[in-house]
Amino acid sequence: MIRTEGVTDVTEETFAAEVLDSALPVLVQFTADWCGPCRQLAPVLGEIAREEADRIRIVQLDVDRETAVSVRYGVLATPTLMVFRAGEPVKSIVGARPKRRLLQELEDVLAPNDLDAFPKVRI
User: Fold this and answer.
1) pLDDT confidence of 118, banded at 50, 70, 90?
2) Please, what sign has the CA dihedral across residues 7, 9, 14, 16?
3) Mind telling me the catalytic residues?
4) Which of 5, 57, 58, 71 has the most CB atoms at less than 10 Å from its CB?
């Protein structure tokens, strides 16, 4: 698998704990060793993982080794980027993107929840 600093590898065994149970939104890159666009996207995801660590987690899953997860979520091409929030897929992006465009496509996921925009009041 393509190793990228800041991007965690997940397997079928760790998927629930790392992705579905995460307090933060999680971007899952469905990838493969033979995928050229996946290799191009790796440094972009590493940068976003470091810069946005307080707002989103980024993980990768090898589609050749973890076929059950790929089939469960209907992944037919690599790279597929799927964002999960509260255990549910909320966005899917197919294909590599430059960093600026990917961040634009993730704006709605990275934006604070409406409730986060208001100060918390203690009574």
Assistant:
1) very low
2) positive
3) 35, 38
4) 58
